[in-house]
Amino acid sequence: MHLGLRGLLDRSESTALRHAMALREISSRFGLGQMNIYADSILSLIGGNHDNAGWVETYKTFEVGYAGLNARLYLPIFKSLAAWKALATGQSNLGREFAAQARTTLHETQEDFIKSDLLRLESVLALKEGEAKAAEDRLNQAIDVARQQGAKAWELRAAIDLARLWQAQDRIDEAVAVLDPVHQSISEGDCTEDQATARELLAKLAG
């Protein structure tokens, strides 16, 4: 279950899928009903092309089962991932709802390790409302939080989004200044997908 969740956070669909299917097989073999709900939840949150029609119902079934255990651990992560999935499938209002729930739950559980990515999520929602300044503020906060935590992956993702925002505003020098140092600080082979995105964006900014 933890490896499947890690796959979702790393944006590695193949990893998340492999571990979720293994979890489903094990939970079915030994009658571990709650673990099967975890497996279904991870499967429902994989990418934009998996079970688009029924993913919300599957995810909410997971939350009901989780609540029945009086469990809260990782709930801000699941809610944040559900918000990203909603945005990926064109359900902006649902994404906004899940993001608000993630924020509330984070305050309750103090699982601050997801805070940077939640701020980045809130910046996307702000942009959808045409609130560019609010989006910029959220991204700057996301970068600050990630730096305080030493969370390079979160910092890079927030820096990419901020650089794209500033690129759209013709603030090219600022975009390079925020993205290049983060990109350079990450070892080769780490955050490979995000590093590739950063390199491509930096090339465009230099051009």
Please, what is the average pLDDT? Answer: 92
Task: Find the CATH superfamily of the domain at 112-207.
Answer: Tetratricopeptide repeat domain
Unreliable stretches (pLDDT < 50, length at least 5) are none
Strand content: under 5%
Radius of gyration: 18 Å
Number of helices: 11
What CATH first level of the domain at 112-207 would be assigned?
Mainly Alpha
CATH third-level topology of the domain at 112-207:
Serine Threonine Protein Phosphatase 5, Tetratricopeptide repeat
Q: What is the terminal-to-terminal distance? A: 44 Å
Q: What is the global morphology? A: globular
Report the major sheet: none
Helix coverage percent of residues?
over 70%
Q: What is the level-2 CATH architecture name of the domain at 112-207?
A: Alpha Horseshoe
Following the backbone from N to C, one meets helices and strands in this order, namely HHHHHHHHHHH
Using DSSP, what is the number of strands? 0
